């Protein structure tokens, strides 16, 4: 099968269908009776299902929030999982984000890279096989979600009633292939109220605030202190501290209060080690002061449990997997007030092999003894497909047949749509040199890359669903 020539034959139709999809403002909105995540996402779902019906494939709508288009026949099912909802466009575009334009060989529109372009590429791969009239060994199903950018209600609803594919991929990340994703948890350490100081403390911590999201390293922090005496000594020690740790901080005296600020460096919550956590640095300084009881308990807890290491060892949750790497701990939010005490918002990611649940049970008991509870725990288990699995081999090989790139399949600390499949990997559609414009202004995708991705998906589906190569591999 000449994948390149076939895709070239469909070039204009593919681009037309994609342009139509890009015109739909499929940002999550107010739910209505027949549109649980808003009219835009529902219209984009309908659009996809209409393409499937137009092209003579079976379609199904699931609760107006997801659906599928299916080609072929057989007992077994291969799934491709894409999404047609988009994040809000934001400001600063050179073009209208919902009036797609072709500029210098690139399509510019919200969602073209994430994930409407890749979804249409996968759709065309399936449509071409369908129109070639070849016998399928696996039914091939494009599953379309409409809530990927928010709460994944789409896949939740879908898999409640629909069949889980035997294997599949999500074209919603990068080539060559992501075969492992860490477990992702978020929780809060919440300080229990303590008895007030019996004697007048020297320094009262009124407020400390740093960070807004679990999945980002806080880049700034602010604290407000009431210093009863020796204000200049405290200021001097802050200056010494900043010099010693080479941190970027400032202070201001205001009506008897001392306000301290700290600058760090932001990073994604999956890689806290490359950032500088402004809140934790400020706590290191505060911990050296003669603080009131509550504040002292708060900073001591941080020093013992959170400061100085991001690999989970201070929480007893460190673990390393040869391919998935180590546990990572990001303290994304820190909040302290004199009245309510302190909260640390933690984003802990961990590789396959760590017994997360029993680790958390132990951790809860230990921190309870330190005056803290664990609240609002939310987690997703790690997702992993063996590197040696035929699925990984065939997809990687299909990619390498079109692109000169020996990059090995890899694992990440983040989460992709692939984790909603029982045996799924993320496969494209960003290439090695692609500029990542997802969720940004002027989101764009090269037409050459769109067609190349379609060729790769066509080869992958042809080899798996028509030729049955996954099964041949298993017999070896
Ligand atoms: Zn996406």
From TrEMBL:
Its cofactor is Zn(2+). Keywords: Dipeptidase, Hydrolase, Metal-binding, Metalloprotease, Protease, Zinc. One of its GO terms (molecular function) is acetylornithine deacetylase activity. One of its GO terms (biological process) is proteolysis. CDD domains: M20_PepV. Gene3D superfamilies: 3.30.70.360, Zn peptidases (3.40.630.10). Coiled coil: none annotated. Residues 259-335 form the Peptidase M20 dimerisation domain. Belongs to the peptidase M20A family. This is Dipeptidase PepV. The lineage of its organism: Bacteria, Bacillati, Bacillota, Bacilli, Bacillales.
């Amino acid at each position: 099968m000449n994948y390149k020539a076939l895709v070239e034959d469909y070039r204009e139709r593919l681009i037309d269908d994609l342009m139509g999809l890009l015109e739909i403002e499929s940002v999550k909105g107010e739910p209505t009776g027949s549109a649980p995540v808003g009219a835009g996402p529902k219209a984009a779902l309908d659009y996809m299902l209409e393409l499937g019906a137009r092209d003579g494939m079976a379609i199904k709508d699931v609760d107006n929030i997801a659906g599928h288009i299916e080609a072929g026949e057989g007992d077994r099912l291969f799934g491709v999982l894409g999404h047609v909802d988009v994040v809000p466009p934001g400001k600063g575009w050179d073009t209208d984000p919902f009036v797609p334009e072709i500029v210098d060989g690139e399509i510019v529109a919200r969602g073209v890279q994430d994930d409407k372009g890749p979804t249409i590429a996968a759709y065309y791969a399936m449509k071409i096989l369908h129109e070639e009239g070849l016998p399928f060994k696996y039914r091939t199903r494009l599953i379309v979600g409409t809530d990927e950018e928010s709460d994944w209600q789409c896949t939740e609803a879908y898999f409640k009633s629909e069949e889980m594919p035997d294997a599949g991929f999500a074209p919603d990340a990068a080539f060559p292939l992501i075969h492992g994703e860490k477990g992702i948890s978020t929780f809060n350490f919440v300080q229990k109220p303590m008895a007030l100081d019996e004697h007048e403390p020297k320094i009262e911590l009124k407020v400390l605030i740093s960070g807004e999201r679990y999945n980002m390293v806080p880049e700034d922090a602010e604290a407000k202190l009431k210093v009863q005496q020796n204000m200049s000594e405290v200021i001097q020690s802050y200056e010494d501290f900043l010099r010693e740790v080479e941190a970027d901080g400032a202070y201001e005296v205001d009506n008897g209060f001392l306000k301290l600020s700290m600058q760090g460096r932001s990073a994604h919550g999956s890689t806290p080690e490359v950032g500088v956590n402004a809140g934790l640095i400020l706590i290191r300084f505060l911990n050296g002061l003669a603080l009131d009881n509550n504040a002292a308990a708060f900073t001591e807890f941080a020093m013992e449990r959170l400061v100085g290491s991001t690999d989970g060892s201070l929480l007893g949750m460190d673990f390393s997997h040869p391919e998935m790497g180590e546990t990572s701990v990001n303290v994304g939010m820190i909040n302290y007030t004199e009245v309510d005490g302190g909260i640390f918002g933690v984003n802990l990611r961990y590789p396959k092999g760590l017994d997360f649940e029993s680790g958390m049970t132990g951790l809860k008991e230990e921190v309870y003894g330190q005056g803290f509870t664990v609240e609002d725990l939310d987690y997703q288990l790690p997702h992993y497909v063996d590197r040696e699995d035929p699925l990984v081999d065939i997809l990687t090989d299909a990619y390498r047949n079109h692109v000169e790139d020996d990059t090995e399949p890899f694992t990440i600390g983040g989460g992709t749509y692939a984790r909603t499949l029982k045996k799924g990997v993320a496969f494209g559609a960003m290439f090695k040199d692609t500029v990542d414009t997802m969720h940004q202004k002027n989101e764009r995708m090269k037409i050459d890359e769109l067609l190349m991705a379609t060729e790769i998906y066509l080869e992958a589906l042809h080899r798996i669903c028509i030729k049955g190569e996954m099964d041949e591999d298993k017999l070896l």
